[in-house]
Specification:
The complex is a heterodimer of chains A (194) and B (298). With 194 residues, chain A is mostly helical. Chain A contains 8 helices and no strands. Classes of the chains: A mainly alpha (194), B alpha+beta (298).
Chain lengths: 194, 298
């Protein structure tokens, strides 16, 4: 049981890393990795939203949709659940914990329609994971995304001072660096066989 | 699909009911949350934020324009005139929204207090590191002959949020007075502290920061202030004072009479009103060696 969860965690965090292996969430990935501070804030918010939305989606999907044979509606529903949950969290957080809201609130809005957040419930549904497995996949994907953001932010902070040829400054060099990291992550592909 | 679908009408009805109820549940829950957890936002905060320039430069000392908008509305001790880029117009609007009194604002502009470009000074050593003044500063205080001079690696030009600073061919920052909003980002980032904010109506500046004695300045720079005091004596308004071997203009007294410009033996004083009135440039041999070093000190 736990070995299984460990495998899912490592697989989703490293081997099938959403950014470097599945090429999802690239918009946020390039958007917030200019500074370490924003990257860390985004990773924390992202992981929290990912785990909670995975749990919510699993409950609705398995307890309501499957008995009613409405599986084909899952993409529409998952978007709705994530958006609704994020909007709710935004409202509640603003009232209960303004400090946390001002630190993480701006990222919450960005997350609403992010493709990784949508991909996690969809994978959970397709793989027919149980509740704990779904949570682990959410957590693992969050950890993987955080790893990608922090790696990229530390590299891009260094790039600020590097002597980059003019045509490559800014985004182009970021794309190239991402490609190189993705190549490196390819090396993990034989680590665990599922 | 999980099972053979019974029939189309059944599925359609079920999915309509299902999605409808999900929508209704979310709608009701969010509406309830919005009511229950409503945070009273002062409408004036939004109004102030719309008035501010939105550059998030941080000149006001708060975290971005939103931070200042909240502070100026919520805190009685925060004045309405703290937005430097917005100048007097924004200050007046903010004061109108918040009901505070706008202070008399003297519009300012950034001025570089150094004219020692690559032709007027020389390099003490060859610096091959990162092309950034702050990095160069770490290597024995920079490569310029004058230890007070602008290093010329353009850190201010890159930092300027309004694109108002360009580097000249001779390696000195040139400030576009139209674009400059006096936000003070360049003043804060310059490791040599050669940039300062000056009243934008004043056009005569003693553009030197060297606090060295005259002979020492002459050895390292062709155009630096040697602290001779001629301008102090010549100024009919008594607006110039000598402070640590460096002449300084009191901008509240300066009347643009341009007397100091003509008496300055070093041409340190810049006259933006009429650059032709500055003394004719003296031509120096292009060699990077300290030519002046052989001359007897005054």
């Amino acid at each position: 049981m736990f070995k299984d969860l460990g495998t899912i965690f490592i697989a989703s965090a490293i081997i099938n890393n959403f950014v470097f292996s599945r090429y999802l969430g690239l918009c946020i990935f390039f958007g917030v990795t200019k500074k370490m501070e924003t990257a860390v804030g985004m990773s924390m918010t992202f992981t929290a939203v990912m785990v909670i939305s995975a749990a919510l989606s699993w409950l609705v999907y398995n307890l309501v949709m499957l008995p009613l044979h409405l599986g084909f509606l899952k993409i529409v529903l998952f978007i709705g659940i994530v958006a609704g949950f994020v909007q709710g969290a935004d409202t509640v957080l603003k009232k209960l914990n303004p400090t946390l809201y001002y630190k993480l609130g701006i990222y919450l809005v960005l997350i609403t329609t992010n493709c990784i957040i949508l991909a996690v419930p969809v994978i959970n549904a397709d793989e027919k994971y149980n509740f704990m497995q779904s949570l682990t996949l959410g957590l693992g994907s969050g950890a993987g995304f955080s790893l990608a953001l922090i790696l990229m932010a530390s590299i891009r902070e260094r790039l600020e001072l590097a002597n980059i040829p003019r045509p490559f400054q800014g985004m182009p060099i970021a794309f190239i660096v991402t490609g190189l990291i993705a190549l490196a992550f390819l090396g993990f592909s034989g680590l665990i066989t599922l | 699909m999980e099972a053979v679908q019974p029939n189309l009408i059944d599925v359609t009805i079920k999915s309509l009911i299902f999605m409808g109820s999900v929508g209704a549940i979310f709608g009701i829950a969010l509406a309830w949350a919005a009511r229950k957890f409503a945070v009273k936002v002062d409408p004036r905060v939004e109004a102030v934020r719309d008035v501010l320039p939105g550059a998030n430069c941080g000149a006001c000392g708060f975290a971005g324009c939103m931070g200042y908008a909240e502070a100026v509305v919520g805190d009685a001790s925060v004045g309405p005139g703290m937005c430097a880029p917005g100048k007097a117009d924004v200050a007046a609007l903010v004061a109108k929204i918040t009901g505070k009194v706008a202070p008399e604002l003297i519009p300012t502009v950034a001025t570089v207090f150094c004219r020692g470009d690559e032709c007027k000074t020389f390099k003490r050593f060859e610096y091959n590191g990162v092309k950034d003044c702050r990095a160069c500063m770490l290597v024995a205080g920079g490569d310029k002959s004058c230890s007070y001079a602008c290093l010329g690696y353009g850190t201010c030009a890159r930092a300027c949020p309004f694109g108002a600073i360009k580097m000249s061919a001779d390696g000195l920052p040139v400030i576009d007075r139209e674009k400059c909003t006096a936000c003070g980002v360049c003043v804060a980032i310059c490791p040599k502290q050669v940039i300062a904010l000056t009243p934008s109506s004043k056009m005569v500046h003693i553009r030197c920061s060297s606090r060295d004695k005259g002979p020492a300045v002459k050895k390292v720079c062709e155009i630096g202030c040697i602290g001779c005091g001629l301008c102090v004596k010549a100024c009919p308004e008594g607006a110039i004072a000598l402070e640590n071997n460096l002449a300084k203009i009191d901008y509240t007294k300066c009347t643009h009479c341009e007397t100091c410009v003509q008496v300055c033996p070093q041409r340190t004083i810049e006259d933006r009103l009429d650059p032709a009135k500055e003394a004719a440039p003296r031509i120096k041999p292009p060699a990077n060696a300290p030519v002046n070093a052989e001359k007897p000190a005054e």
